[in-house]
Amino acid sequence: MVQIKTPTYPTPAVQATLGQTSDELAAHVDGKLSKLYDKVEGVDAKMDAKCAEIYARCDDISARFTEVRNAARQSYDKVGFIDTDAEKQLQGEFARVDTELNLQHYDITDARQKAVETSRELKELRDQVRGMGKAMRSQFRELHDIIQKLQTAVDTHAKVAAASQSKVQDVHVDVSCTHESRPQPRLPNPPMLTDPANLRVWIVQMRSKLAVDGETIGSPEVQCHYVFALLNPEAQKIAVSAIRLCHEENYWDYEAIFTLLNAFYP
């Protein structure tokens, strides 16, 4: 009996594992993204607080420097009436202090500006991280949907394979029944016609064989070729005309071969 193999598909256990893996992957990604969001929010809150503290310190230092500078200018104004070398020296000292205070004020202003820019950059980074997280979540959701579709396709293929296997088994049964119900030959094959003197006896043997086992041999066309195969080469040259005629008229009758041989070997 011919064995017919069908393709093997994942077992139900493998299909269940595939679905479970996709669900676990989606849950794992969601958990990681949530933790990342929490960390970003925490860093953002700390940076806001730190920037606010820096702003407050800068404002306080700036106010103090302004007070010192104003006090120095007031002192300078008070001693402005002294027209001595000490006055000139004091004026120079006040000018130096005023310059240093202005430079320090500029440094504080610059530091505050840098803190503002750093805070802005951190906020932009936070927005970028949030955008990346949303994109990643969307991609993993799409991946989860693809896995679900693949699982559905695998289930469908498994069902189709099961149905095909059932049909193949039915075909096996039909073929087995047909093979078992085919009749077995009951008469031996006639000998090959080697001597035209034995033509009459040979034709009787061949007719008996075809009458008893014709169904086993096959269709009328097959029966004609069966008769032709048991002729010697000389007789086949004669019988080939009968075979050609049967083929042209699409009517197969082994008696045509016998008639033609009787005509050549009276």
**Gap from first CA to last CA:** 48 Å
Helix amount: over 70%
Q: Tell me what portion of residues adopts beta-strand conformation.
A: under 5%
Order of secondary-structure elements? HHHHHH
| Uncertain stretches of 5 or more adjacent residues | 1-9, 170-176
Helix and strand composition category: mainly alpha
Largest sheet: none
Radius of gyration: 54 Å
Please work out how many helical segments DSSP would assign: 6
Overall 3D form = rod-shaped
- The overall average pLDDT, rounded, is 77
Count of beta strands: 0
Notes on the structure:
With 266 residues, this protein is an all-alpha fold. The chain is built from six helices and no strands. The protein has helices at 12-78, 85-181, 199-217, 220-229, 233-249, 255-264. The two termini are 48 Å apart. Mean pLDDT is 77; it is low at 1-9 and 170-176.
Quick synopsis:
This protein has 266 residues and is mostly helical. Helix content is 83%, strand content 0%.
Can you give keywords for this protein?
single chain, 83% helix, mainly alpha, 266 residues
Ordered list of secondary-structure elements with their pairings:
Layout: H1 12-78, H2 85-181, H3 199-217, H4 220-229, H5 233-249, H6 255-264
